[in-house]
């Protein structure tokens, strides 16, 4: 009996991978690899002067503990405050689900086609509808950070309106702590905090479990909230 019989090859895939993050073709991905090699040579020459981001006991003061809640936040996409955005540092793309994009209802919105599929933790391929660049902001005025974010649009049922993966976390310089239920990011010389919504995270997790994995029926209401519209998604039980 060989050693391989007792030590089978380990295969692991615990993240959303694929998509066009490093390019939507073989040539584009090779060019991205060359840029990484060049960056390795010069990465210490011009280091950013960002504030130190850390987490400590005081970050737990407003957290309901113990918990196993996902980090679910609200961000502003275009002029909409979109709730139920799942922060997933294991995702290679930022995802916006078709239902959410339809609710935002951007005039003249056109998706750019893409050929690279997405792969979930089961290894099954999902063909995205396309990709789109939309302005997204976090924080509050007057110190709001706004950037163009590339979203991969997927037509699939989900308990969330979207997923923030590592591309947006890199662009915003976010540091996430699921344990502390916070997303921290630099704004100039300061550190700002985006709080997770534990009630929303727990509510929709319970809904999925209670329904045996079936998608709960949702009712979407749009409420005018100051300068923007707030998407409120309510579960109809």
Features:
6-stranded mixed β-barrel, alpha+beta, 237 residues, globular, Cathepsin D, subunit A, domain 1, single chain, 3-stranded antiparallel sheet, 5 helices
SSE layout and pairings?
Layout: H1 3-6, E1 17-18, H2 26-42, E2 72-77, E3 80-87, E4 94-97, H3 98-104, E5 118-119, E6 125-126, E7 130-140, E8 143-154, E9 162-164, H4 166-172, E10 175-177, E11 182-187, E12 190-195, H5 198-210, E13 218-225, E14 228-235
Parallel strand pairs: 3-9, 3-14, 4-8
Antiparallel strand pairs: 1-5, 2-3, 2-7, 4-9, 5-6, 7-8, 10-11, 11-12, 13-14
List the strand order in the largest sheet: 2-3-9-4-8-7
Distance between the termini: 56 Å
What's the tally of helices? 5
Question: Which CATH C-level class is it?
Answer: Mainly Beta
Q: Let me know the CATH homologous superfamily.
A: Acid Proteases
SSE pattern:
HEHEEEHEEEEEHEEEHEE
Helix content: 10-25%
Strand content: 25-35%
Sheet of most strands: 6 strands, mixed, barrel
CATH architecture: Beta Barrel
How confident is the prediction overall: mean pLDDT?
Answer: 76
CATH topology: Cathepsin D, subunit A, domain 1
């Amino acid at each position: 009996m060989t050693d391989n019989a007792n030590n089978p090859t380990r295969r692991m895939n615990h993240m959303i991978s694929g998509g066009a993050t490093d390019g939507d073709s073989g040539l584009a991905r090779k060019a991205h690899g060359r840029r990484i090699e060049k960056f390795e040579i010069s990465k210490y020459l011009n280091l950013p002067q960002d504030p130190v981001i850390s987490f400590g006991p005081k970050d737990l003061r407003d957290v309901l503990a113990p918990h196993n809640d996902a980090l679910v936040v609200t961000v502003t996409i275009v002029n909409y405050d979109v709730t139920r955005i799942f922060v997933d540092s294991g995702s290679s793309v930022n995802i916006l689900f078709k239902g959410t994009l339809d609710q935002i209802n951007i005039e003249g919105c056109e998706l750019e086609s893409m050929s690279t599929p997405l792969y979930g933790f089961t290894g099954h391929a999902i063909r995205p509808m396309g990709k789109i660049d939309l302005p997204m902001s976090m924080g509050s005025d007057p110190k709001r950070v706004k950037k163009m974010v590339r979203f991969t649009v997927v037509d699939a049922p989900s308990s969330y309106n979207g997923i923030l993966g590592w591309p947006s976390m890199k662009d915003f310089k976010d540091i996430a702590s699921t344990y502390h239920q916070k997303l921290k990011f630099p704004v100039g010389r300061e550190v700002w905090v985006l709080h997770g919504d534990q009630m929303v995270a727990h509510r929709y997790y319970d809904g999925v479990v209670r329904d045996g994995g079936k998608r709960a029926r949702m009712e979407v209401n749009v409420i005018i909230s100051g300068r923007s519209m707030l998407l409120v998604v309510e579960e109809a039980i």
